[in-house]
Amino acid sequence: MSTIQTTVVGSYPIPAWLAAYPTAVHLRDAMLVVLKTQELAGIDVVADGELSRFDVNHPETNGMIDYFIRPLAGIRTTLTRAELDEFRAQPGMGFRSQPAGVVCGPIGEGTLNLPAAFAAVKDLTTRPLKFTVTSPYMLAKTLLDRHYGDRRALAMDLAEALRRQVQAIDAAVVQIDEANIPGTPADGPWAALAINHVLGGVRGEKAVHLCFGNYGGQTIQKGAYRQLLPFFNALECDHLVLEFARRGYDELEVFRELKPSIAVGLGVVDIKDNEVEWRDEIAGRIEHAVYVHCP
Fold first, then answer.
1. Pair 110, 65: CB distance under 8 Å
2. pLDDT tens figures, 218-229
3. How far apart are CA 34 and CA 52, in angstroms?
4. Would the CA dihedral through 37, 39, 43, 48 be positive or negative?
5. Which end of the chain is more exposed for a tag (fewer CB within 10 A), N or C?
6. What angle (nearest 5°) sits at the alpha carbon of residue 44, between those of residues 41 and 49?
7. Angle formed by the axes of helices 114-122 and 24-40, to 10°?
8. Which domains are assigned to the chain?
9. 3-state secondary structure of 173
10. Is 0.85 surpassed by the pTM of this model?
11. What phi, psi does 182 have (nearest 5°)?
């Protein structure tokens, strides 16, 4: 491996032929395409593109929310019109037209089986493999709560269900994905508490990915990394995976104040742009980041 390890965030475009004819065989073929593409590019830590959670009804987001929510105990996914209206009135969820479900009882693992999803991909590559899990904070924000009356308690029970799952996964890296906290940095302390509970069950390297939203190529959340520094420093992870190529690199100096135990994963490819960056351009972004972070 190189001194600076390379990886992808996790998600990958869905092949058109998988969306058109989604079968178990085609899903395995699609995961192989994604993995081999990364291997041929020389990526050190590869991922299955999150295709293991492919849902023909949610092809754009690879089931980032619904894949985790639907199997859980204590959640109902049939919604009344009144519940839809109530959810739409909640602040900060304008990008989503309806909740992922209604919490009607204590959260439990239900039929969620992340270890099986990992088992389906781990023998398809010889490279170190990353497995991604959506943050309990983000999952809690997408639910309409009829049971707990306390979003923090809901997030912690979601975290416990996810922790039990990741304890059985022997991936080289387990990454928690969080795309909602950038718009609500004041929730950082309890969001970090829930995320850390999941990370406590991880057997390999612990990563947290944070972005400002990429649904349909749009930036959904507004904010800055400076506001999120207390959240970052509260995390008990080995490294962060952050977007920079689209946002620019002016905020890099913020991470001089990141606690030394956390490494920074630097986004150097703009996935919201169809233009392919030259390798010299990417190398220049890395060199610039190293200079700013370690002058």
1. no
2. 566 677 899 999
3. 11
4. positive
5. C
6. 70
7. 60
8. 16-293 (3.20.20.210)
9. strand
10. yes
11. -55, -30
